[in-house]
Structure formats: C-alpha cells, structure tokens
Amino acid sequence: MVVVMAPEATSADVEAVTGLVRSAGGQAFVSRGLSRTIVGLVGDVADFEALNLGSLAGVLQVIRVSAPYKLVSREHHPARSVIRVGGVPIGPDTLTVIAGPCAVESPEQTLRAALMARSAGASMLRGGAFKPRTSPYSYQGLGEEGLRILADVRAETGLPVVTEVIDPGHVELVASYADMLQIGARNMQNFALLQAVGSAGVPVLLKRGFSATIEEWLSAAEYIAQRGNLDIVLCERGIRTFETATRNTLDISAVPVVQRLSHLPVIVDPSHSGGRRDLVLPLTRAAIAVGADGLLIDVHPQPKTALCDGDQALSESEIRHIADVIASMPPLMGRMPARSPGGLRPIRAGV
Amino acid sequence: MVVVMAPEATSADVEAVTGLVRSAGGQAFVSRGLSRTIVGLVGDVADFEALNLGSLAGVLQVIRVSAPYKLVSREHHPARSVIRVGGVPIGPDTLTVIAGPCAVESPEQTLRAALMARSAGASMLRGGAFKPRTSPYSYQGLGEEGLRILADVRAETGLPVVTEVIDPGHVELVASYADMLQIGARNMQNFALLQAVGSAGVPVLLKRGFSATIEEWLSAAEYIAQRGNLDIVLCERGIRTFETATRNTLDISAVPVVQRLSHLPVIVDPSHSGGRRDLVLPLTRAAIAVGADGLLIDVHPQPKTALCDGDQALSESEIRHIADVIASMPPLMGRMPARSPGGLRPIRAGV
Amino acid sequence: MVVVMAPEATSADVEAVTGLVRSAGGQAFVSRGLSRTIVGLVGDVADFEALNLGSLAGVLQVIRVSAPYKLVSREHHPARSVIRVGGVPIGPDTLTVIAGPCAVESPEQTLRAALMARSAGASMLRGGAFKPRTSPYSYQGLGEEGLRILADVRAETGLPVVTEVIDPGHVELVASYADMLQIGARNMQNFALLQAVGSAGVPVLLKRGFSATIEEWLSAAEYIAQRGNLDIVLCERGIRTFETATRNTLDISAVPVVQRLSHLPVIVDPSHSGGRRDLVLPLTRAAIAVGADGLLIDVHPQPKTALCDGDQALSESEIRHIADVIASMPPLMGRMPARSPGGLRPIRAGV
Amino acid sequence: MVVVMAPEATSADVEAVTGLVRSAGGQAFVSRGLSRTIVGLVGDVADFEALNLGSLAGVLQVIRVSAPYKLVSREHHPARSVIRVGGVPIGPDTLTVIAGPCAVESPEQTLRAALMARSAGASMLRGGAFKPRTSPYSYQGLGEEGLRILADVRAETGLPVVTEVIDPGHVELVASYADMLQIGARNMQNFALLQAVGSAGVPVLLKRGFSATIEEWLSAAEYIAQRGNLDIVLCERGIRTFETATRNTLDISAVPVVQRLSHLPVIVDPSHSGGRRDLVLPLTRAAIAVGADGLLIDVHPQPKTALCDGDQALSESEIRHIADVIASMPPLMGRMPARSPGGLRPIRAGV
Q1: Is residue C198 part of a domain?
Q2: What is the CATH number of the domain that holds B121?
Q3: How far is the alpha carbon of A341 from chain B, nearest alpha carbon, in Å?
Q4: Cα torsion at C219, C221, C227, C228 (round to 10°)?
Q5: Residues A127-152 pLDDT 10s
Q6: Does some domain include residue A345?
Q7: Are residues B128 and B196 in the same domain?
Q8: B19 min Cα distance to partner chain C (Å)
Q9: Which of C32, C63, C94 is the last residue of a domain?
Q10: How far is D338 from chain C, CA to nearest CA, in Å?
Q11: Is there a domain that residue D342 lies in?
C-alpha cells in the first residue's frame, strides 16, 4: 500500500501515519518529495485497511497496489488450471464449446437444440430453467421441470449440462441435476449465492457482471474459491457502455488480461455480447483468435418462436458456419476442440 | 410498438409482420416512407413480444414505446405516493432523513450513531447487519446479532429501522426485526430476492444498481409490486461512469425523471454517491434542491475506526452542518422535515 | 511518482529503476514488501515521465501522484479566482447567469432572447454563431453575420457576450466581436484551438468534454493558461453515461470537486445536461445548491421553431420560475446574483 | 420518423402533429393504441427535424428511424469500397498493415521503425509530427521537421505515409508531405478540421473518438464526404468505459457493425486500444479474425526511450510474432496481405 500525503501535510501528520502502521505490525518507508510525501507500507494489507488511513489528517490518497483476491490469482499459482465438467476439459490446451437454448421450453426443443449444438462441435449443453429477466412480465423459465428436461437430454446426448441458479435456496436442487452451475451476469455480486455455490462442490461458470471491472469479477470468483471450490470458469459476455448499436460491448481484451492475472479458464459468450445474430460468427472467430478457452453460444431450433433472446439464437443453417470455424481455427491457436466423453450415443428416433 | 422495416424489405416481408400481429389479436398500421416502412402496432405489448418480430425477414428494428412496468408507473396512478415506515412518512410533502452507520459494529457505536442521526434531523435509522462486500476479505457484518442491536436502539431512540437483506432465505428473519428492508445496489436485479421482499409485507428501500438504467430500476420495483407490495421507496446512490474523482457519479437528474415516471418516492444517498466526506454536504443540498423526497446519510461516532466505508461517514462535528441544512432548506422547497413518531424518548444514561 | 514492482521482479530490476531515477537527478526510496516492492520517486515528474519506467523489466505499474496541471491548480494558488467579463464578475461571491439562444437566428430572435435572459436575472448573453453539429445536415449557424447580431444586441442590452469559436483561424475574428470565447464540449481536447484562445487575451468559457475526466478538463484549461491566459471559466454540461433517459448525465459532484482542485470558477449548464425542458428548473436549483459559481441557460422566444436544441430552450413563461429561483436562492448560499454593468439601458422600441 | 404521443395527448394534439407534417410536405399515418398513439412520418427527415415536433403539446418522444448519414452509408452504395493510398489498397480483399512510431523523433528512429514495420508486413508507414497530448507538458512533436523526415523515409522505403493533422490551418502543409491525413480520436468531432480535410483531396484516416457512438463516427465521416472526399478509412481504437485494466476497451464488434452500415473500410488499432504491449498480439489476431480491413500498429526501435506511448510500442523482437500472424492469418479470412508498390528498394547502408 502507498499513502500519498497532501501538500499541506505536516511532519506530525506523516508521523501519525507511520506510527499507526508500525503499531499494526507493519513497516513504513517515507519518501519526501518536493510537493508530496509518499509513505510505502510493508505488511498485511488487510491489517492496513482496518486502519482507515484515508481518514487521517493530511492524507490525500491511499493506493492499494496488490490485488484483493488471492486463491484465484496467478501470483501463487502460475500454471493455468484445467477445469473438468462431466469429463470435458476447459483450459489452456482446448477450445470447449458450450451451446444450447437460452431457455428450456420443452423436451423436444431442448433435445433438438442439443443435437444442433453437438453437431456444431459443442461438448457441453447449456439451457436455462430459472431465468432472471429484467421485466417481471417476461418468460421466467420452467423451474425444476426444466432441470429434468436437461438431465434427460444429457442422457440422450452425452453432453454435460450447465444451467443457471438464481437463488441460494435452489443450489442443492440445481446441483442435483446439473454438471455445472451458472452464475449469471446480474448475480455476479450476489454474495449469498456465490457462497452457496462455493459450498456446493460442483463446477461453477461465473459470468462477468455487465458493469463489473475485471478486479471485481475476480473478487467474485474469490468468494467461491474461499468456500473451497476452485472449479471455476469465467465467462466474458459484454459490458455496458454508451454504445447502443450492440446490446453490450464485448470486452475482447478481458480474455488475455484475465489469463495473465488468474489461473482460471475464461470463455466468451458471443451471443449475449452483441445481442445480434449477425455478430455471432465474427465474434466467435475473434474470441478464438484472442485466445479464449471456450465459447458459450445460443442455439435454438426455431429462433423465431424462442421465448427468450430469439434475436441472437442461431438456427440450424447458421450453426454450420460456426461448426466450420470451431473445427478449423483452434489448431491454429495450438488448441484442440474439446470432446464430450459421451461420444456418439445412439439418439432417440424421430428427432 | 413500432416495427421499422429494412430498406430492402419486400411487401411480403411487411405483410408477414402485419399478418402475425393480427393473428395475435393486434392491429398494425403501415406507414410507407421513401427509404423505410414503419409498422405501428396497437394491442398488448406482451403478446407482441412473444412474436419475436425482430427475427422476421426484412425487420430492421423493433422499438417498444411503452414502459415495461405498470404498477409503479404514474400513468395509471398519477398522484405521488406516501409510504409510511413505522409511522414516518416518505413522500411529496416531507423530507425524510434516514441516517446511521454503514455497518452495525456494537451496541454502543450503533446507539451513538443513532443519537447523532436524530440530532441531525433524521427520523429513521439505517445500519447494516448483513454486508455485501466486493472482497470476501472485507468485514461482512454481525448478522442476526446486528439485527438485535438495531431493534434495541430503535427501542431506545424511537427511530424506525431500515437494514439490508441479501439472501431470500433471510427475509423473514430480517423482517421480524426491521421496519423496512433495504435491497442494495448490487442486488437490484437479484430477482429471487426482489420476489421474496415483495411477499414479505414490509416496506422496501430499493437502491439503484450502479449500472442500472432508470427503466431497469423501475422494472426491479415492479417485481416487488407484482407480489403485492407497493410500499417501495427508491434510492439514487450514484452510477458507474468513467470518472474516477468520485466513487460513483450521483445522477441528480434521476430524481425528477423518476418522479415524473413513477408515483413512488425517491430519496438520495449523498454518502455512497461520492464516497468522500467532503462531498456529503454539497450533495445533500443539491438533493434537497432538486426535489428529493429524502436522504440516506452515513454517520459514525468515530469514522476513523469504522469497519466499513469510513472515508465517507460523517462525524459528530460534521453532522451539524447537515443538521442546519435539513432544518432550513426543506421549507423553501415546500416540504416539512419528517418527524419520527417516537419523539423525544428518554435516552439511556451515560451515552 | 510511485513505481510498483512485479512480484517476480529481481533485485537487479529494482536497481535498474533506482539507478535510472538517480541518473535523472531524482531520488528513489525503496519499500520492500512481502509480495511487492515499491519505489517512491522524489524530483521532477516531467523528468521521470521521459524515462518510460513502465517499460523496464519487473515494473508492474507506475502511479503518478501529483496532478498534470499546475497553473490552474489550487495547490499554488489557494484563493479562488474571480474572472471579469465585460465588467461582470464570475467567482466565489456571486451567482452569474449567462443565458441566450443556442443559435443566433436573426436580430429579432436574438434581441428577444436577450431581453428574456435579462429579465430572468442573466447578466451575460450567450448565443451561437458558429455551431458544431453532429450531423453535417443540421443547422450550422450564421457565422460572422451572427457575431454582428450579438454585438448589436450587446449594445442594446448592455449584456456582455459569450459565443463559441470552433476554428483556430477564427479566433481573432470572434474575439473582435465577443467578450468571452466559448470552447464547446466537442473541442475540449482540440489543442490547436486551446492554444489559439490562450493567446487571444480574451476570457474563455471552457465546457467539459462529454467524456472527459475532471483531470483531462483541468489539463485542457492548463493548455490555455500556459499561453498566458488565466481568465478561464469552467462549465460542467453533463457527461456521457449508459443512461438514456437524459441526453447526458449532469455530474453535479464535479462542481465541488473542481472547486477543491482548481482556483477557476465553475458554472453549470442545466439545459444541455438533461436536454429536456422539464429538467432545467430542478437542475438549476441543484446547481445553485451544490455551490456553482454560475449558470448557462438556453432561452428562446419561440422554442417550437428554434433551429437548434429547441427541446430544451425555455420560453417566456417558463423563464419566470427560473427568475424566481435566481433571485431567491443565491443569498442562502452566501452569494449575490451578479449584475451586468450596463444596467437598465433603454431598449429599442417595438420589441 | 415516428412520433410517440403521451398517454394524456388529446385528439387536437395529434392533429397538430399531423397538420404540421402535412404542411411541410410530408405524410402522417396515425396508429391509435390503447395507451399510446403513434404517428409515422413519411417524407424528408431534414424537413421534419426543422419542425421541432418534440416541443409540441402531447408529444412524448420523437424517434428517428433512418441514419443521419447518407454518402458513407451502404444503403445507397452496397458494394464495399477500396481506398488506395500511394498505390496501397485498403478494402475487403486485403489486410493492410500500417505501422510506425507514435511520434517522429529523429530521422534514424523513424527509418529504423519503418524498416521494422516493413519487415513485419506493413505496407504503409504512420508517424506523428503534430502530437495532440492531454497534458501541455508532454512531448508535442517535431512539426514540419517531422513531416520532412517522414517524406525522406518514404523515399527510402517506398512506404506511403499517414500522419496526423490537428489544425485546419495545417491541412495544406501536411497534405503536401503525406499520402494520407489522420484525424485523431480527440478531433473526431472537430468539424472545422473535418471540413478542411474533406476539401484537401487526400485520403483520410478517421479514428473513432473514444466516446463516440458508431452513428456519430459515421456522421463525422459524412462531414468529410460532403466536401467531396470519399477516400476515407475508419479506424477503431478503443472506447472509454469504466474498465481500468486497459487504457481503452477495444470495441471489436464495431468492425462488423460498421461494415454492415457503411461501405468504407475499417481498420483496428490494437496498440492504443489496450495501451499495453502484451495485448498487441492477441488483439491483432482478434482484429484479423473479426474481419478488419487492416491494422494500425505502434512500433519503435527502442520503446524504453520513446517520447510518446512507449508502454505499448513493439520492439524488434516482439514484432516478429506480429509478422507471423500477418503472414498466416489473412488467407484464412479470404484476404491477401496488402503490398506496398515500392517493393524492396535498396535501403541506406548502415541502418
């Protein structure tokens, strides 16, 4: 930590700072400048934060120079992690595609979407049973019925399932059906929920809040890690900016930035970022090229009748271009497309 | 709703839109322009949204022209509401000050803060027992022990209590102690929590998410209202922008904008907006002058040792300037400072 | 300046930093922490910036702790400045209202707007002759003809004139007609223009860029000051955020923040901030209450036919409420409404 | 255009709108809804804008549904344009790399940087002679001396030159040395400058303002086009958001969005977007993959001593990875790396 003294600070003000730091077991190094005096603190940041140094007379600014997260930081864990979900790896050597419908609407729609996903190269299925919607008048999901459908489709297709949980009280229920729990963007700082999934012993997909800094995102991951769960995959899905041409602004730079700061895998959601079907393909290519560890893509057998986010879901014909990209680009980046362990199970007739 | 057709849209494309709208029981009026054709829809917006018109061929844009909230809108409820919390009114004729410590730390600290608050003109006490913190290593609050302290201090001072709830599973517990439940900025779109407080039958203080549009904020209030609870007070507490000189940017314009759109009262938090003690007084004056229905202010008997947000809490000497402003400005705005019904109860000796 | 070393930095890396700083005539104080080493630099920041310390091996971050502006800073000039424009003071003891039409359209419209402005308490006239418009198809202003109209209206009404200049090549021309040169928001970092007005010897009204930080705004003022012109008034006019309910978000906190950092006066534009007529009155009250040194308000005799920003210009009936506020509120803030020296000159008949 | 009437609007209010529109030669189609009446306007938008419909009684909102730019729009010019600069094409079939030092410091530094650029696959040289800097105390460039150096280096290397112009009065001078004029991000809405380069008859590189919407950016291009100059290349260089981990947030989605709206080529600046050397390579890959028509990259023979933006300039060893990417990726996107016509001229000995 660095304490910057105000120009008008007195020697006594500086001594008050150094005295307090030393009384808390830390060391304080004073650099007296022409217009500013700076005090560098050595010791435990948490101890120093409790001192409220910013409230002392003559203190202009307190600058924290170390990150507020530890377990998810690469500082003490330099090797990048591989997280396995139902046997599917997500990490530095693979490109793992997770795809499926934004909302689970029926067994047929979900199975068809899963088969589309699989044929496009996806090795995991996503689908929403509990839907957090901005308006209470929008479709809210099928709840547990949706979870059952997802489990059935997993049995059919061999694709491990990730689905969102929005209430700490539902974590156990959702974990009993799903292979991975998704924390949505709006819940990224729902700390009760983070702690609940941290204790659930199931891998977690943590989407970035649409207005969260990277530091806040990694701090949210730290909440999960602190409860003993380090099986966390981060998902960049666009941030809120002044630009209105796209639903959100995909922060493509966040991928290499996060990979440098944290050992956790980071994937990209090209569907929610732009909110436009025509952007999914170029953003998918960009995500792979920037070095993402995976993708989360909306597909729907009939986007025109989708109950949620139909504007961005890909249809059967559109998914083929994605399939080509997923098959051809990862090797250029030194990655292999991840494969689902279920392989090619026989599929229910008539679908 | 308005559907804007792309320049290249064919007549068949336009007819597909109008046909779909009519099949859903709506009416469609077509305006053919030189470079654009526009279709105006008349009927129930929810029905139209289910049509996914944006997915149809030739559709450039779908513009919703009515608000996504109804119960909290002023459209069908033109008179501005007065919400009563433990006998204290919040509404168009009063200026209601809620003050207290960011976090409840001990009985003594809470009582002293409450007395400071009361002497400054506050008629309600706020204090956090469950604290949502960005870092898991920051102080997380006393939990139920904090709720008990708040109830005790209410008994001593006569000030109704508002405190934050962060977990749907805690709503009943918190409601058994508090007069009003606070939904914090980070939980503004925690829909499970919104629904839980909507069913709790206790007034709710709904802080604006730091990246929420006014429309999203009112939609969050609609979630609460939809469960039968219209005792909602909105609180503007600053939004996230690119400016770093202040912790957040107080969106002072939001107050008159919200008052025009919704009948719910709206108050301002000058402490969290700026995150700086020196800004609390000028922002308090600005909030009263712009027409806010109340204020939410951090006070602490010893800000230098506060366990949470000490940089912005006002001390005893600073609160006096606020007290002067609260006593003198509201009448100029046609308001009376709200009074707590508890009046001047005898206070525990020695405090 | 503070140099934060990366966790993996070696002793040699630290020595490279300290050696370079010392070779540039500075001093370097090293604080070795558990996970980070910090080097505090003492000396001339400009010298250190030329060293590109951020490029050295093992350097994580370089933090500048002093402001990049000097002449406009309050650090070496603690007393707040009073700027005089045609005899009208703008500074800490007055509230100076500048009003007029967004665009000069005709002699009649300008004179009528000026009389409206004066009757509302304005002591200066603003009006645009050169208009910077987002679209090349929008009204671009009357040019020099507009300047002549402004000068004529000044002669009629006694109100000093402020008008915008958008081209360094026009500065001399505009300065020959106007009492004060306005730099618009879009030109706040048009450094050629800033330098030109800095050399013009005429007071400058510097509007904040809609995406400029306070530090960038003061740095822009420094460009003007550096050419010898310290007669600068700053104008907060709203910043660009994600909120779309208002045209911009008035950053009301910027007023006290700037007044603490700089000795220059700062006024508020409640018209362009919100871009809505119904917000002008509440934002005017908020600006006075927060401590602004003045106001810049759009008025127009017939807003419905205005060629520029008619949505926000006040008409004759609306200006009365503003007049009341301008007459009654400043004394409560310890200020007097500023008066134009011209006083009540006889006005051309028939207007 | 669409006019949305307020719920309380009367029939007379609606007739006032339709009457005014018809009197201006337009047509008005009324859709009466349950809670809103909508009026669709057919005719010339510019005529309608002059009517200030937003000021009429009962009007809630006026929505423009067509773009404010025409000449640069793809609507009437569906084929994507190829712009040629000194014989080098920029357009849909090529990937054109422009590279060079942020600031021209000396003949040697510029030549070395140009050779680095060429060996990395660049076919054009960029370098700044007039530098717009946030602080007046930062390096401001060599001016005309820098232009001469650039022209000399062009003669040596065969690389056409793009350099920034910041003052309308300098356009002729800069155009006499350079092959392409750059408008920097801070000057994107410097309309006097846009008009000046529009009249200069030289290709223009128009960087996006860091807070400009895509619509504003294309409107700025329209200013240039309106003066008869359609040789415009757009450059995405990051936008200002709340995220501080990177200097700006590269809006990678802007590339496909712009390519859909406008026929002009669009390139990406991976150096200024992130402001970090370690991000240049991943962002370069992402830009090529998303479909950018070119790249603008900072290189410097000795980044550690660079007078401007040394933190992001690539050194000789780092440029090799870029060279590999530039050689291998474009064919996968159906593009060829653009070649400079100068080819391999003999280079001055000893460099």
Answers
A1: yes
A2: 3.20.20.70
A3: 35
A4: -130
A5: 999 988 877 877 788 999 999 999 99
A6: no
A7: yes
A8: 33
A9: C63
A10: 31
A11: no
Domain count, chain A: 2
Alpha-carbon distance of C189 to D134, in angstroms, equals 7
Q: Which of residues 121-160 of D touch B (CB under 8 A)?
A: none
pLDDT grade, residue B34 (50/70/90)?
Answer: low
Rounded to whole angstroms, the Cα distance separating D141 from A171 reads 60
Whether D57 and D88 map to the same domain: the answer is no
Radius of gyration, CA atoms only, chain D: 23
Instruction: Walk along chain D (351 residues) and give the pLDDT tens digit of each residue.
Output: 888 888 888 989 999 999 988 888 888 888 777 667 888 887 777 778 778 888 788 888 888 777 889 999 998 899 999 999 999 999 999 999 999 999 999 999 999 999 999 999 999 999 999 988 877 877 788 999 999 999 999 999 999 999 999 999 999 999 999 999 999 999 999 999 999 999 999 999 999 999 999 999 999 999 999 999 999 999 999 999 999 999 999 999 999 999 999 999 999 999 999 988 899 999 999 999 999 999 999 998 887 777 777 777 888 888 888 999 999 999 989 999 998 775 544 444 443
> How many contacts (CB atoms, under 8 Å) link B and C?
115
Contact D134/C219, CB-based, under 8 Å?
Answer: yes
Q: Cα(C235)–Cα(C233) distance, rounded to whole angstroms?
A: 7
CATH number at residue B53: 3.30.70.1140
- Which residues of chain C does B92 touch, with a Cβ-Cβ cutoff of 8 Å? none
Q: What are phi and psi of B332, to 5 degrees?
A: -65, -25
Q: Show the tokens assigned to C115.
A: 């009389």
Residue C13 tokens read as: 């890396």
Nearest to B251 among C249, C282, C287 (CB): C249
- B63 vs D28, D33, D63: nearest CB: D63
Within a domain: A343: no
The predicted model gives C232-236 an average pLDDT of: 98
Please give the residue of chain C at the shortest CA–CA distance from D67.
C135
D224 or C57: which carries more pLDDT confidence? D224
By the 8 A CB rule, do D267 and D237 touch? Answer: no
The verdict on C15 and C145 lying in the same domain is no
Whether complex ipTM tops 0.95: no
Shared domain check, D215 and D282: yes
> Which residues, numbered 25 to 54 in chain B, qualify as contacts with chain A under a Cβ-Cβ cut-off of 8 Å?
46, 49-50, 52, 54
Q: Are residues C7 and C137 in the same domain?
A: no
A&D contacts, CB < 8 Å: 116
Which stretches of chain A are DSSP H helices? 11-23, 45-49, 107-119, 144-157, 171-177, 191-198, 214-226, 254-261, 270-274, 277-290, 316-332
Q: How far apart are CA D3 and CA D63, in angstroms?
A: 6
Q: Domain check: are C152 and C19 in the same one?
A: no
The Cα-based distances of D8 to B77, B158, C9, D3, D308 in angstroms read 13, 44, 68, 14, 58
Q: Is the minimum CB–CB distance between C238 and chain D shorter than 8 Å?
A: no
Residue of C nearest to B281 (CA): C290
> Which pLDDT band holds residue C30 (cuts at 50, 70, 90)?
confident
> Which chain A residues are within 8 Å of C73, Cβ to Cβ?
none
Mutation choice for B interface testing from D29, D30, D134, D210 by most B CBs within 10 A: D29
More confident residue, C221 or B41: C221
Residue span of the structural domain in which D208 resides: 83-337
Q: Which of C33, C63, C93 is the last residue of a domain?
A: C63
Separation CA D218–CA B80 (nearest Å): 43
Name the nearest CA neighbour of C33 among C64, C72, C2.
C2
Among all residues of chain A, which has the CA nearest to that of D244?
A213
Q: Quick check: A79 contacting C, CB < 8 Å? A: no
Closest chain C CA to residue D194: C136
C126 and C204 assigned to the same domain:
yes
Beta-ladder partners of B28: B41
Chain D CB contacts of A251 under 8 Å are 241, 243, 249-250
Nearest residue of B to residue A210, measured between CA atoms: B211
Give percent of chain B above pLDDT 90.
65
In this structure, are B91 and B146 located in the same domain?
yes
CA distance D198 to chain A (A): 26
